Amino acid sequence: MEKLHLLGPGRCFIEFGAGRGKLSHWVDVALQNAENVQFLLVERATTRFKVDGKHKRRDSIFERLHVDIQHLCLRKVPILEKTKLPVVGIGKHLCGAATDLALRCLVESYTTCCDEENEEPAPKRSRTDKTEEASTNSADNESNKDCKPVVGIVIALCCHHKCDWTHYVGREFFKSLGLGPEEFNYFQRLSSWATCGMRETTTKASTGEESEDQTNDTEEHEQTLSRTESGSDTLQGVLTVEERKEIGCLCKRLIDRGRIEYLQQRGYRAALQYYTESAVSLENVLLTAVPSPSVIPEPTI
After folding, report:
1. Phi first, then psi: what are they for 40, rounded to 5°?
2. Residue 81: its pLDDT value, please?
3. Which residues face 152 on adjacent strands?
């Protein structure tokens, strides 16, 4: 975030899938004494042991939104309406479809007004993608006159097997390759192979001295993976673990490529980067995006 010049004063950091809010906490620490900084923590679940309430730095404002991302329209959030600060969207291990919903919320929320209450959001998105894609750029220009743009997106990707075609932002990319919902379902399910070693990590964590946060994250991944792979791994014994991991990683990157294309078509320079070693986290890929005129490091994946 520092390399992308996203850490600075006069920003509103929106953390999607915030949970306890520890990501916002450490961003706030990294900001040091930056002035006029706000944090908006979006989480649909009730969260205990929050850390954002413990901040005492006078210049930082923390607010929570208890809402599903797919029902969030940033144009209607009071704190954003009042201050109109440039927005930076962040997320740590934002599982599956939640990443796509967050990207739509950030990229389209300032350009498409929510005319209806949150009923049947998926069909509405589908019609927009099919019939209004050509007018997106002009709508962006008109909207940017009234509000500050999203100046950055930084999301640690996670759990591609929890993606779904309905909310996936890269559908046009898949269609351009002659692929559709059926093929997407295959890639989405096979993507779980990339974390075949997750159970091994879980076993080590249960016997070693891991922190509470690491243990909770690992258990969450373990539960999801066991539901996905249980009873459906018909190729076990045919492919090695390493071969399965490689196929799973390729499926993940294909899904992520659709997200990159989506952001590029909407005027962002997007990239995928490894942000930590696989020994720290098997979900170690970071999606970054900034408006096109900005300078962004070359992708390493």
Report:
1. -115, 115
2. 86
3. 88
Contact 130, 192 (CB under 8 A): no
- The DSSP code for 39 is E
94-114 burial, b if ≥16 CB within 10 A, otherwise e?
Answer: bbbbbbbbbbbbbbbbbbbee
Tens digits of per-residue pLDDT, 195-216? 875 555 444 544 454 455 544 5
47 against 281, higher pLDDT: 281
Are the C-beta atoms of 85 and 10 separated by less than 8 Å?
A: yes
The pair of three-digit structure tokens given for residue 197, joined into one six-digit string: 């070693």
In 132-240, which ranges are continuous DSSP H helix?
136-144, 171-176, 181-190, 198-207, 212-229
Residue for token pair 């059926």: 182
Strand partners, 52: none
d(CA 28, CA 243): 41
Helix (H, G, I), strand (E, B) or coil at 154: strand
* Entry pTM: 0.77
